## 1
Amino acid sequence: MRAAPTILHLDMDAFFAAVEQAAKPSLRGKPVIVGGLGPRGVVATASYEARRFGVRSAMPMAQARRLAPNAAYLVPRFTVYRSVSLRVMELLGRLSPLVEPLSLDEAFVDLEAGGAAYDGATARSVGERLRRDIREVTGLTGSVGLAGSKMLAKIASEEAKPDGLVVIEPGTERALLAPMGVRTLPGVGPATEEHLRRAGMTTVADLAEAGEDELVRLLGRAHGVSLHAMALGRDDRPVVGERDAKSVSVEDTFDVDLHDRVRVRWEVERLAERCVRRLRAAGRSGRTVVLKVRRYDFSTLTRSETLRGPTDDPVVVREAAARLLDAVDTTGGVRLLGVGVSGLADYTQEDLFAQASAGAAPDGPAGSAGGPGPVAVRGAAVPGGAGGSSVAARVSVPPDAVGAVDGADGADVEGRADGGPAGAPPDGSGRPGPSGPSGGRGPSGGSGRPSGSGPPEGPEAGAGGEGVPGGRHWAAGADVRHAVHGAGWVQGSGVGRVTVRFEEPWSAPGRVRTFRTDDPQLEPSDPLPLVGGGSQPAPSGTEPTCPPEGGGAPGAGGGARP
DNA sequence: TCTGGGGTCCTAGGACCC
DNA sequence: TCTGGGGTCCTAGGACCC
């Protein structure tokens, strides 16, 4: 808690949806909903236009479609969001060396750490300036909160939304917080809210009055203590720079529950390999392998196994995940599978050590054979288990055998990490995750899997061709290029046809054309930069990267909608 | 047409050790 | 010869956040 409002919280407004509107001129001023488009998808972000219909983050897509049937529904394009986020974070970095990113679209900045501001007036002008810069560089709007603590800065930015700035002057916070609902405080979700409500507490003032002991009794030590402090406006958490990740995980929800054990196992092995690719891309290794299973009835369980030492070997992780699966009853069906690795270490030292302690490996001078490639240890699982004898060292796959593809990029492009499960799933049902808007009924489209040798895979997960026989799958919102018509994006697809709108971030709203899904002139493409790459002559003054003719926000009329 | 994906932190019980 | 106490590690689950 400091005496001046010099902790800044930035929150970009409806970030994913706003990026899509900036990239797709025909969507400006219209309801846009970004999220999973499959039968089990949920809303990631809704534009403010869509929120007017009651659409909210985390809402099931099916419900969103009922509320806003005429909105544009788009698959997320994380690579674009990441690149925009990077530019925003760069701007924050100019304000202070102490920047704490919370997600792609949110961060705390300690303005005192860099000497940018020590008083309220200066902080305010820094915040206003930041908002202008963000708009100029990205064409997007962000909301800024300024206060003497993280909690209050965040509450302030929430109040500021959209496209505003709010300062909470130190000294005023208790009065401000008192009438607010308990959900305002960080760490209070639906469960805690209900818990407190049953104890007769609904406002922050109620919590302050209850006293620490009462809250600890109700919610447990850690939660109780911190909640009581927050209710009094006390929050001394410092802004901390980037932290190392503590776990890496991947998971898939299937369009249709999986019943076949063989298929379930195959999916687990795929997930294990994807997880390892991410782990290695981050230059880490981990000691504990976690399997997650969500069953048909949404009950979720996890099983974990801790190895002797950290590994980044796909074979080791895959086999551990498979062992864990053996102990799980999946009768009734599986809705989701996930594989994660925790207990992360930077792999170099630990793995060399683990290799040494594991004794001589059959591979001989493993270290030199595999080059710098880390060595993995397959360890005894259970503490008292007989596992000690199962220790075996392995030289892991050389780095270049692992798709360099992944890079820092979460968008897992399918690619073999090693000789894992074959390219096709043992049975043909229920593809995971992002299924097309067409992907509705039963077995009709469900035969294929994205195979290892798959069709020309787009740079972004959504764009690629999935194993739909006789044609590729085109996800709504994905970037494409046509040999004749140029750059555009998929507006929709179905029954062998794909509809594309040809426009670019800086163009006027474009035209729509329809093609056969297997049209050879049409291919997935890289996303275009929002504002001219690098040399951005941002259209000054006006709305986010407006089309040249100015005022033409496709406005009111129910004009051409997707 | 009920409920994504990637994380973090906390709690609680049992094993194990001193 | 009735069984304390504390610390650490591991596992499982739950709440929460964006």
## 2
Amino acid sequence: MTAVHTDLPAMTLHAAASMLKTDCLLCPVRSCLVHRDGGDQAQAWSDMLAPRQALMPGDGALQRAGDRLGALYSVRGGCAKTYTVDSSGNERIRGFYFPGDLIGLDALGGGVCLSTAVAVVPSQVCVAPIADLQGLMSRMPIVAVRIMQQVSRELALSLAIAGEYTAEQRLAAFLLHLRSRIGVGINGSLRLPMAQRDVGNYLRLANETVCRTLKRFEQKDWIASTERGLKLLDEPALRAAAAPVGLDSPTLKLAA
Amino acid sequence: MTAVHTDLPAMTLHAAASMLKTDCLLCPVRSCLVHRDGGDQAQAWSDMLAPRQALMPGDGALQRAGDRLGALYSVRGGCAKTYTVDSSGNERIRGFYFPGDLIGLDALGGGVCLSTAVAVVPSQVCVAPIADLQGLMSRMPIVAVRIMQQVSRELALSLAIAGEYTAEQRLAAFLLHLRSRIGVGINGSLRLPMAQRDVGNYLRLANETVCRTLKRFEQKDWIASTERGLKLLDEPALRAAAAPVGLDSPTLKLAA
DNA sequence: CGTCACTTTGAGGCTAGTCAACGGCGGTGG
DNA sequence: CCACCGCCGTTGACTAGCCTCAAAGTGACG
């Protein structure tokens, strides 16, 4: 709607506006599907991917629940979320997506988008048309394996978050996942790109509960809230609070 | 532990004991991965699959959390469940698996099993060694697509179950999913293979809550409990109670 | 007939949701 | 420049749904 102030350099936005072809070989997103191997797939991806696309909060949706799945989107920068709308018109956040993540994987099974995807902060995505993707998967099976691993990881995360009982458990697990996923900033602080209410919505908690639980964590010196975001002071304690199998196993080796 | 009375014919058990090679072309499980197409993949699968394996409740686990992923298991008959154990030693059920389902998909991402799998009732599974599977996926990309669709579907289910708020919503959604997944018996009754406490564990509800909620459904004439299992009398009402995006979209077409 | 596992039923407590009000912040417009 | 407004985070009081604990009932099996 209104002009949004952005963290991204103006040049980047201009590049998106002029629809430059993305060169995957130069992409800084190291966690992207393409970069998992030596990068020998990068050229094929570059050829396939549509120009990267800028996406602002308040803009239209990348995909809408019920749409036929037309493309997967690879997040290049920023943060996106997917949500569904229940019969009462309430939004229910299904997932957050950070650079390197693919949006639309849950639709591969049915071919129909199950959720609506929008930007949380000014973001960029690369567009991978599903038709091209299937061709590529046929020609280069390793691509299929990589995508499958991402779906599998998303499944594991979903199962883990769903497996948590209490507000403390879910929130602790969420913070740990976020830390392992997006890392920490310059002074070790973790910046939450999404609003607290969005966190609550995602974890099925009222935003008041999120606030109170965070305060409780702070009183226990597990975290400290800083200028921008918060800092994890006692990860072992958080990990213990999240109890069941850890969400993040960054040290796990990839299969084959 | 003790000898378990089984619903399966003795011949079937004997076949498993003698490690007969499964012939996928003759397999009665129509929802199996192999049968989705015309069946031209069936022979390759037959060549790949290890002998099918009988699995009893109380037997050892098919896979254990923390194990390196050695194989996927395709359920041929019966019902299996996967669970994790939290720091207090409590079991937390992650999923139920019926004929046609693949066990182990959430481990494809990390290569390490995230859960332990055991039988709920006397069951049979086909063993698909992961090494053979990757080779087959390379030679036959359609296999990769099929597996991906199953992962994607499992992800969608997990997201849907996690998205339900109240006991009524979760239980209604679960019953509907079960109905669409395993269908109904001879007189339209739905037989729950797992214990009520397992249902509660899976849905993160106390078994008392499951019991009371079922009773409430019965009082509203949404269901009727029969000799063996229960009957869904008012599916629209259940569907409305489950409110948010439906779990089951049996009419969705497969992509490509 | 006794054991065991599971279900059912009841009473009470706690977690988290709801409702309401306030404060801080940024953007808008006079 | 400053008052206004809306969004978000914070805090408190109250409520409700679900968990816990306890005990009795039921069916399968030895």
## 3
Amino acid sequence: MSRVEENKQQKKNSLMETAFQLFTSKGIANTTISDIVEMAGVAKGTFYLYFKDKYDLNEKLIIHRSEQLMRHALEHSGYEKLETNTDKLLVIMDDILFQLKENPLLLRFLNKRISWELFYKVMEKNEEGYAAVFKNIPWQDDAGRKNLEIELFTIIEMVSAVSYSVILTSDPVSLEEFLPYLHRSIRAIVASFHK
Amino acid sequence: MSRVEENKQQKKNSLMETAFQLFTSKGIANTTISDIVEMAGVAKGTFYLYFKDKYDLNEKLIIHRSEQLMRHALEHSGYEKLETNTDKLLVIMDDILFQLKENPLLLRFLNKRISWELFYKVMEKNEEGYAAVFKNIPWQDDAGRKNLEIELFTIIEMVSAVSYSVILTSDPVSLEEFLPYLHRSIRAIVASFHK
Amino acid sequence: MSRVEENKQQKKNSLMETAFQLFTSKGIANTTISDIVEMAGVAKGTFYLYFKDKYDLNEKLIIHRSEQLMRHALEHSGYEKLETNTDKLLVIMDDILFQLKENPLLLRFLNKRISWELFYKVMEKNEEGYAAVFKNIPWQDDAGRKNLEIELFTIIEMVSAVSYSVILTSDPVSLEEFLPYLHRSIRAIVASFHK
Amino acid sequence: MSRVEENKQQKKNSLMETAFQLFTSKGIANTTISDIVEMAGVAKGTFYLYFKDKYDLNEKLIIHRSEQLMRHALEHSGYEKLETNTDKLLVIMDDILFQLKENPLLLRFLNKRISWELFYKVMEKNEEGYAAVFKNIPWQDDAGRKNLEIELFTIIEMVSAVSYSVILTSDPVSLEEFLPYLHRSIRAIVASFHK
DNA sequence: AATGAATGAGCTTTCATTCAT
DNA sequence: GATGAATGAAAGCTCATTCAT
């Protein structure tokens, strides 16, 4: 990568990083492009070199951060060593939940956007990479594809919704307290799909 | 109610009704107060007689619509005639889901705000009214209050998250197809909390 | 007209008057809306209460000033007392040319927009008023309508084009020097259409 | 011309050609330098190697295209074979009018800039070339120079103004229909100057 | 209570111009 | 000579809010 190319990437990264901080602290509606460029230390025009508007930047940010989240979980959860698919799923989820606990800003940012829809988008975008891994997960063969989809959909949406409240506000309980209940609930759902 | 009182109420209602339509169709960020008053047929200054700003109006709208939703469910689901608490819960949920299916705008509007938090707010605000009804629901005595809270929390968040996608986009399946799975999942969760 | 109504009209007039001065002195492209409102002594938002943008204001200005020009000619040229249609036409034209000579800014502003097209627009817009007068001018009956149209078109476009250069730059001669030639040319054209 | 020279000329031509298209289709005010360089396939900085700004380019374009127009008329109208000066003038004008009819974009571009002033500029700029031809046209000796100037001025301005409307909008008639009237009008003007 | 003209801070966006490569 | 990333002044425009009527 040439000097110029490096510089470009650096500016783009700076804008994304800054925007992330501002979006999470003040909300996207209350964040102006002036805020972003000022804090990022670039000129206003530079923003428009890389993004259409702040909503464009926001979308790119969501995709980017979701991918990071998922990649980390796949690389660090150790799911490959486990036997059952349910166990694999649980450790992947736990890894993500703890990443979010460590980074509540990210949780607030991704809030209610970690969804079935996004999950699919991320997977499709990375066929060569970890998406491949996902396809190897054997519980794709246990039942009909549709059934599996519904099962995953139910679980993902539930975990996503539940984690927001629990991690950010500890309401009604803290993440640590909640985890055993969550695991039990998930296992129960899985069982209900496979009896 | 005097003529003057009636007129006031009428203007306020008109503003709320109009705002609801605009918020759901264009989003709150893209709806201006000018839009609202113009469509409602009142003067700009009048808006400020009743609401602090559009976010104030929005909050009042959420509460109001949620209450209606819940009241209808309590009055029409026939939950009193059922035996077990789980059955009661399921028919109440179904009633709400079908109300939302009939009124997708309302679903889009309340989306991701039908939450544990709101559920509590609504209940607290109406102690005299139907909230009282809720307190009579016997499964409040079955287990410790905390356990019950966690259980309800888990279920409510799951149903809320799941219904949005299913009702509005029929993804991954339609509401009718999904309901049996949802019932089974809920029963599974309930069971996992009471074994 | 109520106090409020008067005030509105006053602001609108002030904006139009100011814009006229700026458009003629700096050109419309180099005039900003900030310039206009600042000089007119109103707030920026007020501009948008009355005009879509500066081009909208410009068009309204053209129509307005053209009407004034024509009205004055019809009221002061004394054309009614003359016998032939050609004589009537000539005194009306002369009146307009001398108005423009007195007000070169106006000429520069209307430049090359005093056209056949505009002439028609103005006449159509004022059916009740002086347009009525025009319709009474007997030379509308002398020849077929089409012939008359072509004749008027030729003369108006010529006078319009020619006057700009003559009045503003006295190139190749001054207005006074040019008038006899112009009259002779117009009479020649008229004759060529009626022989 | 060296390879380098050729390349330079080619870039300059490309910029002028592109600008012409953009100026006529969107207007000069709505055409940005970015538009021009992008469509011309050169870098932004390159523009400034050849032109001061877009208005500089515009002026060069006007001169250039006017010269082409006139050169063609002088070379193809066959005016040399005609007897009277009026006949020569008419065929030259007709040639130009038909060039413009074939190329309405050019007419729109040159609109209202084909004037007495420009006519002089073009003639002065090409003393050695076809301007010389013009000076040989005998009707320059028929009357006093001033009289001739006024005559030409009147005719050129009239034809210029009239042709725009007739060619581009066929209002009030088409060019073909209009030509006989125009010829008669011009002959009438000429006669009025020479009686 | 109701109005709506007026405000002006502050937003988004554009684009001519520069200059290191 | 040619490039195009970066700039930032300055434009157009919006809209929540006020307040005299």
## 4
Amino acid sequence: MIRPVLSRRHAIADDLRHQISAGHFKAGERLPSESQLAVHYAVSTATLRSALALLQGEGLVEKIHGSGNFVRRPLRKITYIGGGCPAATWTAFSAPLRMTARTTSIEAASHHTTLLNVPPRSALTEVLFTTHEDKKPHSLAHIYVPRDLAPATPRLPERIAVSLPDLRPPLCEVQERVSARLPTQEEATTLRISPSLAVLSVTRVSLDASGRVVEAALLVLPGDRADAVFTTRLATEERTPKP
Amino acid sequence: MIRPVLSRRHAIADDLRHQISAGHFKAGERLPSESQLAVHYAVSTATLRSALALLQGEGLVEKIHGSGNFVRRPLRKITYIGGGCPAATWTAFSAPLRMTARTTSIEAASHHTTLLNVPPRSALTEVLFTTHEDKKPHSLAHIYVPRDLAPATPRLPERIAVSLPDLRPPLCEVQERVSARLPTQEEATTLRISPSLAVLSVTRVSLDASGRVVEAALLVLPGDRADAVFTTRLATEERTPKP
DNA sequence: GAGTGGTCTAGACCACGAG
DNA sequence: TCGTGGTCTAGACCACTCA
């Protein structure tokens, strides 16, 4: 843990971090412009921008092109609850979130066939979810369901993810694959996050008792505000159960 | 998905990406120096470096200070198996990995007390794991166990994570919290990854039947080669009605 | 010591956002 | 239109690696 000399940009980032946490710059407030800050710290704009890039990566500062750099509001924590309980999955989000859904009918492309284990070009229903808090995007979800399992209504209610379990055979197994990566450019703009802010990517595949894939979900959660939690209760039947 | 004009650095990154995937630059090979590439693409070194930064973030290129930029070998995939089966957790790693462990005795600091639910300054055993493939670091793990549950031997065998379950009361519940973030500077240097490559951070807490925390593990896995998989089998006899 | 990447400068011009 | 951030230049000097 050796930090013998601090590079300029780290020193500046540290100073801004402290000023933010000390309240000299308040949440939602605009920082001085990059050129002003560059003058203040007596560095070039390029150096100052690389310092701000560090704070962006930490999710402390949000850049808006043409407007300025803003201190982010304290983040409302999102917790994704794993383990295949669809009702609980989203209720863990802190309450006043808006959710929008857009439903389209598609034919299975190659990555769908491997994910859902369906023939190529078979009929799928795709639902694109976005959750918002105060008009700010919070998370993204692509959900794919075989067409015969999804209601035929062209516009599904927003509660599709919750209502679906009632319409199909009971789920038997849920597999969730979690990875960390940087967002694609599309995801970064949709979620309004920095391209250097890591996202949590969850690929969830749900199987019914016959082993058929009844739903595949691709979720993208910004890493600065989202965790995924998986709780496993282990069968203790091998040992003598307690009274 | 609008990409009307490609910025220079994106165009250069795309070109290098294609050259790498086409085999013009082979795995493990050194790229031309940054100044040579800058001349070749007729851009300044700063612009060229920002192009390389994109490839680093994708894990395609590894920079080594003083040596050059290297095409990464195709990555051996690491899969972290969740769900609290400690034996399976690490056997899922592809075979020929070396694992080193360093054991120390510490007193619980504030973040340990909340994690392990133990009194401040209580005795803990800390194990620092690193896994290697060909001398290259692969993953990091900090494991904390209450001292009275860990064998008193000052130097534990490497198999501590596997052997521990046999020595203590059977596990009852495992909670795993997964998040995505950029690595700390320390993690980046230890894992020899770019500071802009996202890591998967897993905090695993294991409880025994009495609810006592018998182990807390903090795992750090590079996002370009590691996934975490959680498989849940749902009890089909129980159709939980929704509130 | 030669060559590499790491940091930084002092500008320039372009693209976006709001009034 | 004007101020903002986005991109880029053509250098400079420092730190690291390796022969």
